[in-house]
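Hey,
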Amino acid sequence: MTKIFIQDKATFKTTARTYTDAGFLLVPGRVAKTGTQKYLRRELGLDGDPNATVTVYRPPEEVFADDSLASFDGADITVMHPGELVNAKNYKKTSVGFIKGPGRADGDFVAADLIVKDADAIKMIEERGFVELSAGYTAEYDHAPGTTDDGTDYDYIQRSIRINHAALLPAGAARAGRQARIFDNQPKGNTMTKLTLDSGRSVEIQDEATAALVSDYIDRLKKQVTDSNAEMDKRQATIDGQSEQIEKLKAETADDAVNTRVQAVLDARTKAEKVAPGLTFDSTDPVAIQRAALAKARPTVDWAEKSDAYVQAAFDMAADQVETTDAHAEQKKKLAEDGAKQVKEQPKPAYDSYAARFTQSKE
């Protein structure tokens, strides 16, 4: 298993807040959750499509392990993620507070007490809605595909979870769901929460926790629809790709295409035997035959590095040169044969006189 750094986002809504005499903000909230969560492959350093998702299982025995809960104590609080673990070098630039005490089990969640000390960070919470939390931590990922008790399939199991920091974020991008939230004190009287459905209809729910639960359920349904559509698109793309491949194979195996390819191979072999006499060719790829012939004819050139177009042009030039040379040789041979024939066909006296000049004999 490989230990890596990961950031886990979880939504928290505004809570009843306590302020110290020094102006520090004390905020208890839910920071982590058991169960399955989706991660991009690039977040886990996995090969393949970096934007593809994998399902990771966070079993209770790992989330609520003593060492994991203890790691919450003293963990820093940041505004947005620093992009790396908080450390001695970036501490002054990133930390706006800390978590006091270890984490504690709260149903499926881990609750912890946050102390925000930086005035600007407190203002961002109060005025700009930076009330969501995202945990930054290290963990080990065991590739052990399985199925949870509720029937959810997963690819990896998360182990040895160690918290480094919790980041304050603006609304959105909740990974652990909307039930993960900063705690509220019981309000006086009845507080109604308005919830807008996909149809555009708004309904009011008295209990805020119930509203959050309903909203979370709706979000999960939306995500299931989105995931289903994405899977359908992926399958359709696969089908379309296979159809294109089939059509390509049909075109390549048509009679005209086969005849054209066979003729190209025969032409390449015929010319290659002239360019590189004595070399045998086992390939049925015209360009491969041309490379082999040129490699023998001009061994000082690295033909493996040349493009197909370059090889074909060089091969055609070499073949043309061989044909031109052969034609000149044939022409010279024909001229020599014609000359000898003319001499032999001369009348014998003339022939004898011609021969005498070379033998220095006289008639």
